[in-house]
Here is the input.
Amino acid sequence: MQRRMLSKEDEATVGKDDLEVRREDQDKINKFSRLHQRETLLEDELKSRAKEKEDLEEISNELELADENEKIPYESDGELRA
Here is the structure.
């Protein structure tokens, strides 16, 4: 079975009543939609984790540069400590 895109003329001649989506095609559309949504969520999570990694690297570098006698505030169990 050869697949081809409809031309603009073909699209114009097809009436709305003539459009039928086969079950197989609808299943493929649904699968694509689910995969695309999953990809979007994973990309967002990747961006978030990259930002978190960048922040942790920055904090790590700041701690390395800090004076040994200098007290460094940090948060533990919701409380700020030094």
